[in-house]
TrEMBL record:
Signal peptide stretch: none
N6-lipoyllysine, modified sites: K68
Segments forming domain Lipoyl-binding: 27-109
Name of the protein in its database record: Glycine cleavage system H protein
Subunit details: The glycine cleavage system is composed of four proteins: P, T, L and H.
Cofactors required: (R)-lipoate
Superkingdom, natural source: Bacteria
A GO biological process held by the record: glycine decarboxylation via glycine cleavage system
Organism: Persephonella hydrogeniphila
Family, similarity comment: Belongs to the GcvH family.
Length: 138
């Protein structure tokens, strides 16, 4: 599949681990990208951090299990977890059906908003996916 077949939302930040970040002031919402959820397959369980947890960028913050694999989710940002998506406890498939909306994972109060500069823009992420896809075709 080509990068353009996956939904990539302009105005968000992205990681090479297929996470997206929507920054609003010092707060940010974090989720798994459309490409990431597609690679995982049907999500059957999501373990989220506890509200109030302090995390460093790169720390394991959650885990996601699908019919294909179980993965650890690493925080793209340093800060304090403000809220988690409680709906995922009842319906983890929201990660698949609406990755940029109802399938978000958690919200964080950023300790250092300048960390956003280390993440990819939508344009950068599109190029990254195209690179991954071209490597798979070889």
């Amino acid at each position: 599949m080509a990068a353009e077949e996956f939904r990539i939302v302009d105005g968000l930040y992205y990681t090479k681990e297929h996470m997206w970040v929507k920054a609003e002031g010092d707060d940010a919402i974090v989720g798994i990208t459309d490409y990431g959820q597609h690679q995982l397959g049907d999500v059957v369980y999501v373990e989220l951090p506890e509200v109030g947890t302090e995390v460093e960028a790169g720390d394991k913050v959650a885990s996601v299990e699908s019919v294909k694999a179980a993965i650890d989710v690493f925080s793209p940002l340093t800060g304090k977890v403000l809220s988690i998506n409680e709906d995922l406890k009842e319906d983890p498939s929201l990660v698949n059906t609406d990755p940029y909306g109802e399938g978000w994972l958690y919200e964080i109060k950023m300790s250092d908003p300048s960390e956003l500069e280390d993440l990819m823009t939508a344009e950068d992420y599109r190029a990254y996916i195209e690179e991954l896809e071209s490597e798979e075709e070889v």
